[in-house]
Design a protein that fits this description.
Layout: H1 15-24, H2 28-33, E1 44-47, E2 51-55, E3 65-69, H3 82-102, E4 107-112, E5 124-129, H4 139-143, H5 154-169, E6 181-183, E7 193-195, E8 198-202, H6 207-219, E9 228-231, E10 236-240, H7 258-275, E11 296-298, E12 307-310, E13 313-317, E14 324-326, H8 328-339, H9 354-368, H10 372-398, H11 402-409, H12 412-425, H13 427-435
Antiparallel strand pairs: 1-2, 2-3, 3-5, 4-5, 6-7, 7-8, 8-10, 9-10, 11-14, 12-13
The structure holds zinc ion (ZN).
Pfam families: APH, HIT
InterPro entries: Aminoglycoside_PTrfase (IPR002575), Histidine_triad_HIT (IPR001310), HIT-like (IPR011146), HIT-like_sf (IPR036265), Kinase-like_dom_sf (IPR011009)
Protein name: Phosphotransferase
Length: about 450
């Protein structure tokens, strides 16, 4: 990963000098609001007309963020009317959810402290407690600068701020006012907007089949997909907006944990199982023609950029446009390629090394409870899947599809072929990892 773990170790802190600075100096929150370049650690991660959120220069916990009103007000309850207080707290929650998505934590502390005798500008602390902190080092102990602060560099602060800004740029966990449209990022091929609690996307010839599938999933009790609500008056399909964060490459740390990888595998298994027995509507068309054997309805693009994470955990897949009946392994192989990921580390320096890829591939296959035959087919299916993708991309580009033409112009097709060759080179290692006896005994005991 380009973004290494945040430093955790605390070092002694000159509290007396700090106290002299805050009691004698100008208001540091107002200085950050004014953009004072001296505040290199106080990277701004979020701001609107009324509020600002920035990194804590002297973090007692890794990933600590401060949220403040831009106006110099001092008293947390007396100086704000109810509406202003609620608006501030909504911002605190929004930023805290982003902190949770980016910084590993077992609990998030929220505090408003400060002092009328110095450090008076109202601000809230968002303090993520690292997992596994011993009990006696939690709570007030964790927050006191007398117990040391974490030394870090402006570069590390800039990296953290960038990740928090990316998380905050994703779909917010709060609802927009009804009627207002907001363009969602990551749409790529289509313009996708959010209206209140819904997402609107251009309806296509495959939309009726996809909506029937989403209805079937909801009826089957599968909660890891948006619900469909037909089309609006502008020819757009209407789907539930799913709150959370949607990661992209290079994958943030929370999307690279074994736990996240295993949960994606289990979620994909649940999704596939829920599609068994689904009967597409009469004459329904799919984006891709069905493939044999049609064991399940493949999602067609199971990837981090189509997966909603909440509190660091994958909870749902989105963008079912490319869904089509097909074999389980057709989806599983591509999802493994995307989430392990099986990128050639020679072209993607954020990709794990090949031994780690093999280990993670096994974690994913086990979490899916992938059968023996599908394990044997996984690497060749991943390569076939990538070659299929390249052929599709080039055909669409040649037919004048602008987004695909741009991808080809940027050389995406060649990257996929590079990765396919990487998978071929290490096929023996990957297959050995998939088939070796693990702690749970022989692989492929379950159906599938
Ligand atoms: Zn101030």
């Amino acid at each position: 990963m380009s973004d290494g773990p945040l430093p955790h170790a605390r070092e002694d802190f000159d509290v007396a000098a700090y106290v002299r600075r805050v009691r004698g100096g100008p208001c540091f929150v107002c200085a950050v609001v004014a953009g004072d370049p001296a505040y290199v650690f106080e990277q701004v991660v979020f701001e609107d007309d009324l509020h600002i959120a920035f990194l804590d220069r002297y973090p007692t916990l890794p990933g600590k963020v401060l949220v403040a009103p831009k106006a110099h007000v001092e008293h947390v309850v007396r100086d704000l009317d109810e509406e202003a207080y609620v608006r501030l707290m909504r911002t605190v929650r929004r930023v805290a959810l982003a902190v949770e998505a980016v910084v590993p934590s077992e609990r998030t502390y929220l505090l408003s402290l400060g002092s009328g005798q110095g450090n008076a500008h109202l601000h809230w602390h968002i303090a993520p407690l690292p997992p596994g902190t011993p009990y006696e080092r939690q709570q007030f102990h964790a927050l006191m600068t007398e117990n040391g602060v974490i030394p870090w560099s402006p570069r590390q602060a800039a990296d953290l701020a960038e990740r928090l800004r990316a998380a905050l740029a994703g779909p917010a966990a709060t609802r927009l006012p009804e009627g207002r449209e907001e363009e969602l990022t990551g749409g790529g091929v289509n313009r996708i907007v959010r209206v209140g609690g819904t997402v609107r996307r251009p309806a296509r010839r495959w939309t009726p089949a996809v909506h029937a599938l989403l209805d079937h999933l909801a009826a089957a009790g599968f909660g890891g997909a948006p619900r469909a609500h037909g089309c609006d008056g502008e020819g757009r399909e209407v789907l539930d907006f799913l709150p959370g964060v949607v990661p992209n490459y290079p994958l943030p740390a929370y999307a690279m944990t074994d736990e996240a990888l295993a949960k994606v595998g289990a979620l994909l298994r649940d999704y596939h199982d829920a599609t068994v027995g689904f009967a597409p509507p009469e004459g329904g068309e799919w984006y891709f023609p069905p493939r044999v054997p049609a064991e399940v309805v493949c999602h067609g693009d199971v990837a981090p950029y189509n997966c909603v994470f909440r509190e660091g955990r994958p909870v749902a897949f989105i963008d079912f446009d490319t869904a089509h009946p097909g074999p389980r392994v057709w989806d599983v192989a591509y999802a493994a390629y995307r989430f392990v990921p099986l990128h050639d580390p020679g072209r993607d320096e954020s990709a794990p090394g090949v031994e780690e890829q093999a280990r993670r591939l096994r974690v994913f296959a086990d979490a899916y409870r992938l059968g023996v035959k599908d394990r044997e087919a996984l690497t060749r299916t991943a390569r076939a899947r990538l070659e299929h993708l390249v052929a599709h991309m080039r055909a669409e580009a040649a037919a004048g599809h602008e987004a695909f033409a741009a991808h080809v112009a940027e050389g995406h097709d060649l990257l996929y072929l590079t990765d396919s060759a990487h998978i071929a080179r290490h096929e023996v290692l990957f297959l050995a990892a998939l088939s070796s006896e693990g702690q749970g005994g022989r692989v492929g005991m379950s159906a599938g």
